[in-house]
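Is this the right way to post structure tokens for a design question? Let me know if I should format differently. Anyway, here goes:
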């Protein structure tokens, strides 16, 4: 583990290749029950370039009419989100240093040209718990700024199997994904990567 910034811990290769494949099998089931959807921005209705789904009791979503929020059901199927895989609950228990289990796991899929602009994660009622992020598939250039949008930022590469925890002074820092580095994509046999790309999981406490 290395603390790359106060409150930001990077566990490179936390999930080995066998564990990544096991996690992908779980995600294939999750996506079969809770298909990818494309969130849209509040007010503008502009679609995200990232596709999303969720597992766990609550899921993050956004649409033009009602904006960013957590809901217990999939916006298209109306079904509850599938349960969170035990491997993710175990990673949270081992690394998050928080007594309660995660309530939401947002699953982001990045195609080759997808990105995520700088933002803060502030749709949760409680910022005392950390966020735990797992990367799978292609490498990406991840950017971490400060607590103000105008603060300077640093870029890091995130690779398949890496886990990040973001807590304490880092919880409200701006962050985003500049771009994928698809030339560095590992060969992970899964239909989820039929067109390459990257998956990121973020585990959170919400309430
Ligand atoms: C730093 N996802 O879903 S994960 C998101 O790779 C999100 O898909 C990105 O930002 C992705 O909201 C980044 C790493 C991450 C997550 C939360 C953070 C970094 C963070 C919260 C505060 C500071
Ligand atoms: Fe975020």
């Amino acid at each position: 583990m290395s603390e790359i910034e106060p409150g930001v811990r990077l566990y490179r290769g936390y999930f080995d290749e066998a564990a990544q494949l096991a996690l992908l099998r779980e995600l294939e089931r999750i996506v079969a029950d809770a298909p990818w959807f494309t969130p849209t921005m509040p007010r503008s209705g502009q679609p995200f370039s990232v596709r999303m789904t969720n597992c766990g009791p609550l899921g993050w979503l956004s649409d033009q009419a009602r904006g960013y929020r957590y809901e217990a059901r999939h916006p298209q199927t109306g079904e509850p989100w599938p349960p969170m895989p035990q491997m993710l609950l175990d990673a949270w228990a081992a690394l998050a240093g928080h007594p309660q289990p995660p309530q939401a796991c947002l699953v982001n899929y990045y195609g080759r040209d997808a990105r995520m602009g700088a933002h803060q994660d502030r749709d949760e009622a409680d910022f005392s718990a950390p966020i735990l992020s797992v990367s799978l598939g292609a490498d990406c250039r991840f950017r971490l700024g400060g607590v103000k949008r105008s603060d300077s930022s640093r870029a890091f590469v995130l690779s398949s199997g890496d886990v990040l925890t973001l807590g304490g002074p880092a919880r409200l820092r701006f962050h985003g994904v500049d771009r994928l580095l698809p030339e560095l994509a590992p060969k992970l046999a899964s239909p989820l990567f039929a067109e390459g790309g990257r998956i990121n999981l973020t585990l959170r406490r919400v309430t």
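Format looks fine. Someone answered above. Worth noting: Residues 2-204 form a domain with the Jelly Rolls fold (CATH 2.60.120.590). The chain is about 15% helix and 30% strand.
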